[in-house]
């Protein structure tokens, strides 16, 4: 039996027929010969593939063909006696490896070889010449994931199968059905490498899982049971043959692969780089964190991508990935891209955390203000437009660090001249005043009842433990919501300082403040979890559980959001509409398992 399976269990599905930049024209010669069916021309073409291909030696051609077979580019076709004859008649002094994986028994189809080379070149963003040259061989020699890149449908026509352009192939979901029908998955470090530190490796594995948990509704937990097969995912370090359909090939080449959709095998003989940070540009080393993120991607159902910067590119496991051939490229972090996130969510569902607050957070920048939308759920804060990675509450607002594990509302009030901002966070009976630029506290926690509560002779005060709050920039009033009631409050004095004990401009039922549209699909549910005033079009969003409603304050207001993270909504002013599910409007809110500090740690 061959060392390599003809049809590996996990095969990346690649779409090869899409056109886009960058495009490389195929050489005229290759086109004319490839289209011919005459045996003689095929032989000439194959000969030219060798002789024009920048002087590859016999051994190098064998190596390349073995690579193409191993990684799914030449699945059903074998080199023929022709290659033997060509190799034997050449002047190369390379020793022919009698133990080569090339099976010489059946006919080589030179057209398929050229196609296979072209496809490989497409995946590695090389000019698609279809010729075996030194650049192509060099790319084949880079370390990589051992899962095959492509499976080609032999029933389709040649013309349809032949790639025309070197187009980045987007990552696709593997057609292989996964056995994970749960969102809670366990993992086990089944076999350690004696060359590595177990704690360090465990930390990296946890980090890799938490990166996926940050972008998809998945939870991963470690199990320590010694018994094999006790975890959904088993991770182990192996060398050579290792009770698996594949065998490892020592340093370089196949660095890791998945097995039976439940195991990650890592080649113990690789030089593994454990640094969690930007990797060293070291040739031959394998970046363990990226390797783990990549292989977990396979287990979740992803195939390979031909985007060099994708974590699912076969070379992404390298400390020095193929991307670095581009002079301007930087080493990618182990971040999961939009395509991968979209595909994984299509399979495992959307992310639907319970939202505590949403705010267009403004901060001073130079002489003006900038703003971004922040969504808060328990200890996590997502900045919209920055992917699915949340910051911790204490990272987004350092003044709250260690003081709160959740907020009821965050709001900013603007002075009448627009020059001063006051930033407040509310939690239970307390509120906090923060610096708008740094998020640091300007004073210690104060009681809501003391400063905004009902005073003798007054009918109302701002209650404690509010459900939601927002600042209406058109009216310049703050709106606090608890139960079915809204408390409208003029928060700022003319000098820009906080106005206290002056409740309220208005105390009104929510259904009077937000009259529902006649065609409203779902009545508002209280208590609310959050309220959000979108400053770009003065739309108020009311959020309860997994549902949201919206109310356009301005007549003629339209959705002017340009944020790709938010959906567009039909706007009808002064009426409350049911908007749909929270995850349809705020799309990048996943697990809070690994809130980190991207804003301040860079
Ligand atoms: Zn892979
Ligand atoms: Zn294996």
TrEMBL record:
Residues given in the record as Zn(2+) 1 binding sites: 242, 257
Signal peptide (from-to): 1-25
UniProt-annotated binding residues for Zn(2+) 2: 145, 294, 298, 304, 312
Keywords from the named record: Calcium, Hydrolase, Metal-binding, Metalloprotease, Protease, Signal, Zinc
UniProt keyword annotation of Metal-binding present: yes
Location of the active site: 295
Cofactor(s) recorded in Swiss-Prot or TrEMBL: Zn(2+); Ca(2+)
GO molecular function: metalloendopeptidase activity; zinc ion binding
Keyword Transmembrane helix annotated: no
InterPro entries, alphabetized: Hemopexin-like_dom_sf (IPR036375), MetalloPept_cat_dom_sf (IPR024079), Pept_M10_metallopeptidase (IPR001818), Pept_M10A (IPR021190), Peptidase_Metallo (IPR006026), PGBD-like_sf (IPR036365)
GO terms for biological process, alphabetical: collagen catabolic process; extracellular matrix organization; proteolysis
Domain Peptidase metallopeptidase positions: 176-350
Binding-site list for Ca(2+) 3: 249-250
GO CC annotations, alphabetized: extracellular matrix
Cofactor mode of binding and number, as noted: Binds 2 Zn(2+) ions per subunit.
Residue positions binding Ca(2+) 2: 232, 267
Family: Belongs to the peptidase M10A family.
Name the UniProt record assigns to this protein: Peptidase metallopeptidase domain-containing protein
Organism: Macrostomum lignano
